[in-house]
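Subject: for your reference before the review

Hello V.,

The reviewers asked for a structural picture of the protein, and I figured it would be easier to keep everything in one thread rather than splitting it across files. Below is the amino acid sequence we used in the manuscript, unchanged from the supplementary table.
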Amino acid sequence: MILENETLLHKRYQIRENLGQGGMGSVYRATDQNLGVDVAVKENLFTTEEYARQFRLEAVILANIRHPNLPRVSDHFVIAGEGQYLVMDFIEGEDLRQRMERVGILREEEVVLIGAAMCDALSYLHARKPPILHRDIKPGNVKISPDGHIFLVDFGLAKVYQGNQATTTGARAMTPGYSPPEQYGTARTDTRTDIYSLGATLYAALTGVIPEDGLARAMDNAQLTPLRKRNPEVSRHLAAAIEKAMEVDPSDRFQSADDFKVALLNSKSMTQQLLGTYTVAPPPSETERKSDPSKKTSNALVHSMPPEEYAFVSPRKKQLERERRNRRFLFVAIAAILMGVASLFFFGPTREFMRGVSQLISPVEPTATLLDIATATQVALVESPVVEKATSTSTAVPPTVAPITQLSPTPIGADYLQIAYTSTRTGVAQIYLTGLLKDEAIQVTNMPGGACQPSWAPDGLKMVFTSPCAIKKDTYEGSSLYIINADGSGLQQIPTAPGGDFEPAWSPDGKYIAFTSVRDGYMQVYLYVIDKHDVNRLVKTNSTQPARQPAWSPDGKQIVYAYKRVTTYELWTMSTFGSNEKQFFASGDVLSNHYPTWSPDGSLILFSQHDASEFNFPNLFSIKADEPNSSALKINMGVLSIEDLDYSPGGNWIAYESGGDRGYHVLYSTPSGANQARITEDVAFDDFDPAWRPVPK
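And here is what came back from the structure prediction:
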């Protein structure tokens, strides 16, 4: 629960404002009534007896910190049943994240000075007996005061390192892109953990991009993009030093903060200075910011991985696959040549010979993977007379839209590997259909204002979508819903009203379309009855409680949706016609749940969850459909973010959207995360809103 302003905490600290909120508590600006000075109060909501004991022990150690680049911890206390609190110096100014958002990419010299100051602070912390680990170094925790002095702040995740004996204190948390692999799960962290996070922070400051996630790199699902590839102006020595600090294996990093500092200073021929004397240009005053609010450049920090660099397939796997394909191609080529020579020598060229060559090229090796089998099947389907006949009778489509029937479905068990998704490749969002194993996305819509959010009819022959929507947004005010055939023909508009209709979901029996609308001034869930052309409101709440993102159960008897009852979105269920509303899953007043979807067998509901109070990447969770408000299981897919997930009809595959504020991309994999791949590799546009096509009937 967030403390209200003017609350007197511990009979001494009067709360002035909430500076930030996270999963473990909030940070407040408060006034120390005894001393008449402003302080920062860090709240931690873990209150078990053992946790409180360890907190007191480590708070005493932190209170003895005295360093010019670190705030002083002046008090600590535990309020039974409420929380634990650290009181620290309040540092005026801006943090590094705000500076990057204000000026864009930082100058090399400035980054070196910031890095040197942080290394001084880390050297001091790591030299304590026992060593103190910060474990949450990121741009938001590097503060620059009004006189340009640099501070490392926020000890909410700090931990005393006892060699081989790990303490139970210090909440284990990760910041994707800034946390090293060992900080995920239960792996042991040490002083080199902070070195990695500092390197990642400097990387972001020099490039304006959060680096690829450490866990994804450790799993061989991503590679660190060379710093100079993002910013060629950075010197080779500085880039090498930062990349060394970010090595996946701790033994390959700098083994001490002092070593990292020396490398940073040597990269720019700078000399050591006295502790606390590294300063940078001060932030603008409040008056200057108000008078010139446009100092932010287009190079401001990107909250997601650049699409071209965040590879989701292991480089080693890619190499092995290339080598295998090359060997097979060489074998087939030699066989074809030998067969051709023999045929010409004995029989001359014949149609049978040409057919034999084509058959040589298509067989699948005994050791072929599932994708090889699918590829071979798709080639056979595309070239079969049956498919050609179907193509020749396809419905005419608008100019610039190719016939979709050219895409032959590829069977994988009970599934067909076709996905409709939204892409901005033409400059405005349109819906495309692709066969996943061949790079031939076909444009389905050609709406002047853009089209997005496709949802298939259960027969796989039509889809409903939202328009206009030129780019990906959270809501689409003024939009309407349209139905279109899979080949791009037969466009028709669903009855609409002022406000905006979006987030459509076609029912399993094909009779209804549930959707979100703001036609009454705020988001509510509505139902379109297709054969009667009627629109009925399902959820009826007040204007402060929006409901959205409906998803059907496989039997069509229930709808799960996101409902903001208080401060965050909860998951609720209701019947087809809006009765029997029940809370399904709530996660408190900090975490929001969204984009729910049912597994094809109806046993699970999957959803994304993110912190509603500050930026973070959404994670994927699942909960048993027949156990409302039970514990949700986090599913690690090895990507930075995951949302808007859609199962294949047979349940063998999932498609989902991954990315951030920029650079959205559609991926697909098995539900366990295996055989993960991205639909497109183009770097110039966003892909989002995946919808797996049912088997066409």
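For the response letter, the relevant points are probably these. The chain has three domains: 8-89, 94-291, 386-692. The chain has a mean pLDDT of 79.

Happy to draft the paragraph if you're swamped.

O.
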